[in-house]
């Protein structure tokens, strides 16, 4: 199974089934509206980043949990079909994680996430820690219990593995987690939540360098901003101009591809340009995981 020529990445994160209702106008409390379409789409930030990194060309292992309900098998199968190693994906008695999403005519989302099985991942096993220790990078987000996220990042730090944290859903972060994070990748909204600075990503990036050595703030169609303690003046990387049809999962595609490029030893600016190409490809196609590009497409 081991392929010494490939870069290994471990993802410690969530799997969710997205239950998506498409409506003209989202209902308010107490109101019922008739929608026009319903879809179930495998997702979760952890699973999406795992699929993105696998398609971008890494050997990826996923640590997390699915439930024993009707969604568990499909969540597993989606990861497996993308070539993600799911030996360490637990099955927990009870429901899988779900995200209940209402998308209106303007493409705006209202979302309820119920953690389900994800909530059962409160600590790591010896095998989980070993899988993290063997990787080049560990990808984490905030959809699993903080105790497990922290344990994973600490295991990565002890073993010299680069930890890349997507601070989503946006919330204040414990200092212990920031202390073991190498690269923080918030979107503009998450950066504002973390710093209290909105509308000024340059200043937010500078503020975040007080907590982590490197930051990338993603700015949607405007690209991203990179800053590091070694080079504190933020550098902008523009997004390729494309026609977006569905930006769901753009951030996860970006992070997955960025992790692969960095793990392969590419310089940060090259890695950011490559990740921007991957994310730009994904927004031109519907869906999240289904829209993520393969390595050859990104290279082209
Ligand atoms: P998230 O999905 O986490 O909210 P962003 O919306 O900031 O994250 O998008 C992440 C990255 O995806 C951006 O930095 C950019 O490279 C790319 N991207 C997002 N939207 C577009 C777009 N409309 N056109 C081109 N690239 C995009
Ligand atoms: Na997409």
TrEMBL record:
Binding site residues for ATP: 187, 218-223, 251-252
EC number(s) from the headed UniProt entry: 2.7.1.15
Enzyme class name: transferase
UniProt KW keywords: ATP-binding, Carbohydrate metabolism, Cytoplasm, Kinase, Magnesium, Metal-binding, Nucleotide-binding, Potassium, Transferase
Domain called Carbohydrate kinase PfkB: residue spans: 6-293
Major location (coarse): cytoplasm
Regions crossing the membrane: none
Cofactor(s) the protein requires to work: Mg(2+)
Annotated residues for binding of K(+): 246, 248, 282, 285, 287, 291
Family in the record: Belongs to the carbohydrate kinase PfkB family. Ribokinase subfamily.
Name used for this protein in its record: Ribokinase
Record organism: Streptomyces violascens
């Amino acid at each position: 199974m081991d392929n010494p020529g490939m870069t290994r990445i471990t993802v410690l994160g969530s799997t969710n089934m997205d239950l998506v209702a498409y409506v003209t106008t989202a209902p308010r409390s107490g109101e019922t509206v008739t929608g026009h379409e319903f879809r179930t789409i495998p997702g979760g930030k952890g699973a999406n980043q795992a699929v993105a990194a696998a398609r971008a060309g890494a050997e990826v292992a996923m640590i997390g949990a699915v439930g024993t309900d009707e969604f568990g098998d499909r969540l597993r199968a989606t990861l497996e079909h993308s070539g993600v190693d799911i030996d360490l994906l637990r099955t927990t008695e009870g429901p899988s994680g779900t995200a209940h999403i209402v998308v209106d005519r303007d493409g705006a989302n209202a979302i309820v996430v119920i953690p389900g099985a994800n909530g059962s991942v409160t600590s790591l096993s010896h095998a989980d820690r070993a899988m993290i220790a063997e990787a080049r990078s560990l990808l984490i987000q905030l959809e699993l219990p903080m105790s497990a996220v922290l344990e994973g990042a600490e295991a990565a730090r002890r073993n010299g593995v680069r930890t890349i944290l997507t601070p989503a859903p946006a919330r204040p972060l414990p200092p212990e987690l920031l202390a073991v994070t190498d690269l923080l990748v918030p979107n503009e909204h998450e950066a504002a939540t973390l710093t209290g600075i909105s509308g000024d990503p340059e200043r937010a990036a500078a503020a975040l360098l007080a907590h982590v050595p490197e930051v990338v703030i993603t700015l949607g169609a405007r690209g991203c901003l990179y800053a590091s303690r070694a080079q504190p003046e933020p550098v902008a990387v523009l997004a390729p101009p494309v026609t977006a049809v569905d930006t769901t999962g753009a951030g996860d595609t970006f992070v997955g591809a960025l992790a692969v490029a960095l793990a392969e030893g590419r310089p940060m600016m090259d890695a950011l340009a490559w990740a921007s190409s991957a994310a730009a490809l994904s927004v031109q196609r519907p869906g999240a995981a289904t829209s993520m590009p393969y390595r050859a497409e990104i290279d082209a």
